[in-house]
Design goal:
Blueprint (H helix, E strand, L loop, with lengths): L1 E10 L2 E11 L3 E6 L6 H8 L7 E6 L2 E2 L7 E4 L13 H6 L3 H4 L7 H13 L15 H15 L3 E5 L7 H16 L3 E5 L12 E6 L1 E6 L1 H4 L2 H8 L9
Parallel strand pairs: 3-8, 3-9, 6-7, 7-8
Antiparallel strand pairs: 1-2, 1-4, 4-5, 9-10
InterPro entries: AAA+_ATPase (IPR003593), ABC_transporter-like_ATP-bd (IPR003439), ABC_transporter-like_CS (IPR017871), Metal_Ion_Import_ABC (IPR050153), P-loop_NTPase (IPR027417)
Protein name: Manganese ABC transporter ATP-binding protein
Keywords: ATP-binding, Nucleotide-binding, Transport
């Protein structure tokens, strides 16, 4: 179990997120929701130690997460990735094996098999020699999902993996997430989608600087909670 207690992050003397607490269970997928600027990516980056936190404790299996980062996989937003970098699909996914093999060791046969399996799971094996920049947005996202699979992590964090993808890619991604759940992996997914896709999640976290609600969809997605999170923008969400 991943436990986050009283997580607070500040930027330039103002709170980005404040006193956020939640738990993530093995075999579950949690959706992290909230408006732009709510601090969703900030929470994930602070949990992973990518940005400093002002206060808070993050523990996995009763030990500090920062000492167990080999067990973690993180897929950032597509906008944070340099798609012009000259690298093949297969090499992108092989990067997921670095925590296991080290930076300066040649991948072994097992790693090549793991990478092939990961690419096949997302339907991208036949594109393995393509440059990553030649792919469509949905295909690029599938490659980075494959990289996360190749890492064989127990904790997986995805920042808006469904943003701008085609319906085929969305189906593939949710199928992969379901497989990961069956393997007792723990998933946290940042999403802006407030529609039918929320049915896929076991737990929802509704955030706007602080945690507004946590739990099942029926308990989180109430009119009162949504108004607290989205304010006067609420009506535009369902047009």
């Amino acid at each position: 179990m991943l436990e986050v207690n009283d997580l607070t992050v500040s930027y330039r003397n103002s709170w980005a997120v404040q006193d956020v607490s939640f738990c993530l269970q093995p075999g579950q997928m949690t959706g992290l929701l909230g408006p732009n600027g709510a601090g969703k990516s900030t929470v994930v980056k602070a949990v992973l130690g990518l940005i400093p936190k002002a206060s808070g404790i993050v523990r996995y299996a009763s030990r500090p997460l920062k000492r167990q980062l080999k067990k973690v996989s993180y897929v950032p937003q597509r906008s944070q990735i340099d798609w012009d970098y000259p690298v093949t699909v297969e090499n992108v996914v092989m990067m997921g094996r670095i925590p296991a093999t080290g930076w300066f060791r040649k991948p072994d046969r097992n790693s090549y098999n793991i990478v092939r399996d990961a690419l096949e799971r997302v339907g991208m094996w036949n594109y393995r020699q393509r440059q990553i920049g030649e792919l469509s947005g949905g295909q690029q996202q599938r490659v980075f999902i494959a990289r996360a699979l190749a890492q064989q992590a127990n904790l997986l964090f995805f920042d808006e993996p469904l943003a701008g993808v085609d319906s085929q890619t969305e189906t593939i991604i949710f199928d992969v997430f379901q497989e990961l759940k069956s393997e007792q992996k723990t998933l946290l997914v940042i999403t802006h989608d407030l529609g039918e896709s929320l049915e896929h999640y076991d737990q929802l976290l509704l955030l706007n600087k602080s945690l507004i609600a946590v739990g099942a969809k029926k308990d989180v997605m109430t009119q009162e909670n949504l108004k607290k999170a989205y304010g006067h923008h609420l009506n535009h969400l369902f047009i």
